[in-house]
Amino acid sequence: MGEELSRTQRLWRWLKKPLLWGIPIGIFLAVLAIGAFQGVMVASNQNAFCFSCHLSMDTIVQEYKASSHYVSDDEVLATCADCHVPHGFIDKMKVKIAATADIYHMIKGTITKENFEEHRPRLAKMVWDDMLANDSEACRHCHVGDNFDLSKQPQRARLNHELMESRGETCIHCHTGLAHKRITIE
Q1: Which residues fall in the annotated binding site for a menaquinol?
Q2: Which residues contribute to the annotated binding site for heme?
Q3: Cα torsion at 121, 126, 131, 132 (round to 10°)?
Q4: Which ranges constitute the DSSP H helices of 66-115?
Q5: pLDDT, tens only, 34-62
Q6: Whose CA is closest to 12, among 24, 1, 20?
Q7: CA–CA separation, 119 vs 128, rounded Å?
Q8: How far apart are CA 183 and CA 175, in angstroms?
Q9: Which ranges carry the NapC/NirT cytochrome c N-terminal domain (predicted)?
Q10: Cα Rg of the chain (Å, integer)
Q11: What pLDDT score was predicted for residue 1?
Q12: What count of Cα atoms within 13 Å lies in the side-chain half-sphere of residue 6?
């Protein structure tokens, strides 16, 4: 019986040591936080997430669904995130944080379905400026290798693509309005 008591006392002494409990609890919480973070990142990169606001606010979803990025004979489809969310972690986080402004404006009612077209040129310019600044990184992420075979392109397109770099151009110079209607920016 005395030996049993000393085991209990030893167990309680061990349980009271915060470092011994802190390490496994800290690891568990870190894994839980990383898993939750990753889940949010994956969910917020799905078309359904994007559509949940844009379907009720503007015409962007309908334009995208009519584009070659949504409907393709090659079965190579681009999601909203493929074009609008960078693949690198730091740049992705910058875009995700900046996108919270959209939520703010939706809740506040600054941008609505009724006034979206008034704001659209400014918003589109921001996206196009980003694409120009990063040399259309999102386009080049998918349009590479078999997904960008110059030999399968008409002669004029092939020539223009071959001359892009020497002209200082990037994809967005010619392909604005591909997934969403082309608008005039003043």
Answers
A1: 102
A2: 50, 53, 57, 80, 83-84, 102, 139, 142-143, 171, 174-175, 180
A3: 90
A4: 80-84, 89-108
A5: 999 999 999 999 999 999 888 877 888 99
A6: 20
A7: 15
A8: 12
A9: 23-182
A10: 25
A11: 52
A12: 3
pLDDT in tens, 114-157: 888 888 888 888 888 999 999 999 988 888 877 788 888 889 98
Is the per-residue pLDDT at 72 higher than 80?
no
Indicate the Cα dihedral angle 8, 14, 18, 23, nearest 10°: -120
The pair of three-digit structure tokens given for residue 77, joined into one six-digit string = 């489809």
- HSE-up (13 A, CA, CB side) for residue 155: 0
Structural domain boundaries in the chain: 1-43, 50-175
pTM of the model: 0.74
The long-range contacts involving 89-93, CB below 8 angstroms and separated by at least 24 positions, are 91/134, 92/41
Q: How far apart are CA 15 and CA 11, in angstroms?
A: 6
Residues making up the annotated binding site are 50, 53, 57, 80, 83-84, 102, 139, 142-143, 171, 174-175, 180
Single out the residue of 54, 74, 73 nearest to residue 62, CA to CA.
54
Q: Give yes or no for residue 16 having a pLDDT over 80.
A: no
